[in-house]
Amino acid sequence: MAERRVWVWVEVDVEGRPDKLSLELLTLARSIGTAEAVVLHPDAAGTVELLGEHGASAVYVGNDARFGDFVVDPHVDAMAALLNDESPDLVLFPSMFSARDIQARLVGRLGIGAISNATNVSYDGDDIVVTAPYGAETIGTVTLDNDGPHLVQIRPKAFPIEAVGGSAEVREVSPAIDDSRCRVRLLETIEEVSEGPNLEDATVIVSGGRGLGSADNYIIVEELAGQLGGAPGASRAIVDAGWVPYSHQVGQTGKVVKPSLYVAVGISGAIQHLVGMQGSSNIIAINTDEDAPIFDVADFGVVGDALQIVPALTARLREES
Amino acid sequence: MNIVVCVKHVPNPDLPMVVDPETRRLVRDPGESVLDTADEYGVEIALQLAEMHGGEVTVVTMGPEAADDALRRALAMGAHNAMHIVDESLAGSDALGTARTLAAAVEPLDADLVICATESTDAYSGMVPGALAEMLGLPQLTFAREAEVDGDSITVKRAVDTGVQTIQATLPVVMTVTASIAEPRYPTFRGLMQAKRKPVDVKSLADLGLDASLVGEAGAQERVTEIATETVEKEGVKIHDDGGDSIDQIVAYLKRIEVI
Question: Is the Cα dihedral A149, A155, A160, A165 positive or negative?
Fold first, then answer.
């Protein structure tokens, strides 16, 4: 039997590099079969070298300017045509916003099932076997009954990034994009610049939630993070409330982090948040509600008023340092 | 402006999720289920847009009889019409089957704007809105945190991985919304009373002209073969702070794990 062809959907970051999450998926793709990448982006050509270095044997490159000027539709049209021509066995999507949009539309376009939030994929004969956690405590094993391609979205940090060396063959993609299908125009992107260590790279993260009471109190989270040489994070609730920028969000729809220490300040611990941080080596939780679910995953829980405890802790650490 | 909001009746998100080991489906206790809080934001922005531009809001749900409760909540908030797709054949639907059913229900409503949550709180696959948009042949504007309608043009602000984007399209469209789009209103007593009496348009698969083999368990391609429970509850320490007396112990813990 021919080796399985596993495609990785690649998102391009603001610096024109393949996003880290897409590089993680190449590690999984290589373990299943022949890894190939698809990049539909005006700067696609600049990503080929790094993708090859991380194990892609070929990169489908589509750099039509309309991939940058419009969202979703031109990408879906091009991807549907590619899938039809090339028939890969499996397409892996990173857990990112535009990748999700494209995967979801392909479900509708091709009339095929898909799996989200997976942490592993393997094959048992011809059957795909996907591991997908539901909530914090239940792990499902899921299969797809269609002939393929199988569309699976993988959670962040499920696989390490591995630079294995190698170079990718470039396969130019020039799909016929109909202008009438370019329907959602991208008018503007404002980059959010965060200061201090990057959330994904920090060894210590201090995150705040609704229990802080107000946006002004977020400073106590930043100060403790600063004192510990870490990065400040946030629950979805306070990002949605506009207290802090989206780039700080830890959780299912934010960043998935695994620092050596995670301090949850005034965070109740919705499943959304837990899946983004429960892989941390050590977890401290500070919350007034003794029954908050965050205490179930905490190594060290403090039931009390974060607004008193956190500033006092920061002051003590400053004295001792 | 004719607005449709797709909503879901989900198990109370504050309670732990329970999966039936036999059916490998989520256990749905009607008495402990609510209108998905993620949908309340969609209902709210729909009501605001209808108040601003005129028109009516129709809420649509697919689910067992108890899901009527989710529609009543949306009606109590002020939605004008409600449609409930109930059919035994729908049990066990995956995202594809759900999108097919919603598409068949929503298409004849001739909406200018179809609103969904970005993902449901119980299954959170996030695949239904995009698949629905594709089946309806409509553009999609997703993860909206702000939305503005001007004539037949809609402009949406959304937070994505690279920053905050502004995107624009011509109606009709499908839009998915996040919690920052609008603060949901509480139903008034009068709204609650009226909601009980408002008619709900109940449809079966046959009414929608949908083939039962394409939906529910029969049409599902996503199949759960095994469910395992992993207890993540840690043997952690929990202390009670009294006036800042926990600081010594926190510092001791930080030293023990060699962070300081």
Answer: positive
A285: confidence class by pLDDT, cuts 50, 70, 90: very high
Q: Give the C-alpha separation, A220 to A311, whole Å.
A: 6
Token code pair at residue A233:
């994070």
**In chain B, where does DSSP find H-type helix?**
37-53, 68-77, 95-106, 128-136, 189-197, 205-208, 216-219, 247-256
Highest mean pLDDT, choosing among A134-148, A228-242, B84-98: B84-98
A161-191 pLDDT, tens digit each: 999 999 999 999 988 888 999 999 999 998 8
C-alpha distance from A11 to closest chain B C-alpha (Å): 10
CB contact at 8 A, A233 and A199: yes
Q: What is the pLDDT of residue A96?
A: 92
Mutating which of B161, B164, B181, B241 best tests the A interface, going by the most A Cβ atoms within 10 A? B161
Peptide bond into A149 cis (omega under 30): yes
The A residues from 60 to 79 touching B (CB cutoff 8 Å) are 71-73, 76
What mean pLDDT is reported for chain A?
92
Q: For chain A, how big is the Rg over CA atoms in Å?
A: 21
Name the stretches of chain B with pLDDT < 50.
none
Q: B95 vs A113: CB contact, 8 Å cut-off? A: yes
Nearest chain A CA: its distance from B207 CA (Å): 22
**Short-list B183, B102, B87, B97, CA closest to B138:** B102
B226-242: per-residue pLDDT in tens? 888 766 556 789 999 99
SS3 B118: coil
Q: Which chain A residues have a beta carbon less than 8 Å from that of B161?
A: 11, 13, 19, 96-98
Asked if the interface predicted TM-score (ipTM) of this complex is over 0.85, the answer is: yes
Q: Report the pLDDT value the prediction gives residue B16, as an integer from 0 to 100.
A: 66
A 167-226 residues with CB < 8 A to B = 183-192, 204
Q: At what angle do helices B128-136 and B95-106 cross, to 10 degrees?
A: 40
3-state secondary structure of A148: coil
Q: What is the phi/psi pair of residue B243, to 5°?
A: 60, 35
Interface test with B, best of A76, A106, A181, A184 (most B CBs within 10 A): A184
A287 close to B (CB below 8 A) = no
Alpha carbon distance B239, B250 (integer Å): 10
- Rounded to two decimals, what is the model's pTM? 0.86
Do B253 and A284 count as a contact with CB atoms less than 8 A apart?
A: yes
